[in-house]
Amino acid sequence: EAGVTQSPTHLIKTRGQQVTLRCSPISGHTSVYWYQQALGLGLQFLLWYDEGEERNRGNFPPRFSGRQFPNYSSELNVNALELEDSALYLCVSSLGQGTVYGYTFGSGTRLTVV
Amino acid sequence: AQSVTQLGSHVSVSEGALVLLRCNYSSSVPPYLFWYVQYPNQGLQLLLKYTTGATLVKGINGFEAEFKKSETSFHLTKPSAHMSDAAEYFCAVIDYGNNRLAFGKGNQVVVIP
Question: Which of A56, A99, A106 sits opposite B43 (nearest CB)?
């Protein structure tokens, strides 16, 4: 069974640019969560998608957005990049509503903003 | 809302010594608790979880954790540290109100030869 796939694995962007990160969950998983892991800040919850709908978002500005497609894959978009957006972005796949099913993490996308 | 606290961001342990990582939780309902490990430039991998039943939970790589309701704790231990245990460890609890996991700040474990 394939795990959670994220692309790209690394990228470098310039301040003010826009970026799109992609995630494919485990087959059969309908929920996708996005977390930001910046140096020294732990894991910060960004967004939760389930069955194609945005269910919840963390305390991030509107320039962080995303969507979930009918095949349950997801994109995270960040507009007007700032230096502090440099972080590891982790996609998480879950079987359904309710994290009692547990999370499966992707390996992340390392974003560097210069 | 449910939350967890992990104290001491960096933990140094000698090879062969006991690994002890502390986690205290806050929850108004019976908690579901997790420990995850993260190796450099990788995602998080589940070590073990407590849902119901036996309070001593055994996980992968020789780790175990004990749920103590009276102390609101879920500390992670391993009797003998190995060099391969060098990683970051996160404790997490289900945040029912927001339907997601709430993570602690993490412990960076360094194993000294």
Answer: A106
